[in-house]
Amino acid sequence: MTTIRTLLRTDHDAWLPLWRGYLEFYEAELSDEQTTLTWNRLIDPQFPIHGALAVDDDGAAVGIVHWLTHAATWSAQPYCYLEDLFVAPGVRGAGAGRALIAHVAEWADAHGSPKVYWLTQETNTTARALYDRVATHTGYVHYQIGLGS
């Protein structure tokens, strides 16, 4: 059975391979400095980015999720953005992804957020099969403009 818990300062060595696996999956490269900054933000209770770890029955880390909230123009309460979700390839399909999403939804509900939302690649069919079961596909298309640094 998968257990979801808040990231602890002592989880760095368990979190890092999952973070790197996530970046590799999305063919993204971040500097070691950015990874360190991300980790420090996740474990800083004063910083508004949150993280949780999925662990299996043996206590091995098998997944991560990171989220944040932000003000919204269509709601008095902040929306919750699930920014990063990754489950180790060898345990996909066993419920860790669903449990991580549920953890964020429960946290967001407890903190008054009216919704949780996230993005994924159109080609991420494995994850999208789960997302179609636990959420509503809104039909929106994502655009972005890269700026400066």
From TrEMBL:
<dbReference type="InterPro" id="IPR051016">
    <property type="entry name" value="Diverse_Substrate_AcTransf"/>
</dbReference>
<keyword id="KW-0012">Acyltransferase</keyword>
<dbReference type="InterPro" id="IPR016181">
    <property type="entry name" value="Acyl_CoA_acyltransferase"/>
</dbReference>
<dbReference type="GO" id="GO:0008080">
    <property type="term" value="F:N-acetyltransferase activity"/>
</dbReference>
<keyword id="KW-0808">Transferase</keyword>
<protein>
    <submittedName>
        <fullName>Acetyltransferase (GNAT) family protein</fullName>
    </submittedName>
</protein>
<dbReference type="Pfam" id="PF00583">
    <property type="entry name" value="Acetyltransf_1"/>
</dbReference>
<dbReference type="InterPro" id="IPR000182">
    <property type="entry name" value="GNAT_dom"/>
</dbReference>
<feature type="domain" description="N-acetyltransferase">
    <location>
        <begin position="2"/>
        <end position="149"/>
    </location>
</feature>
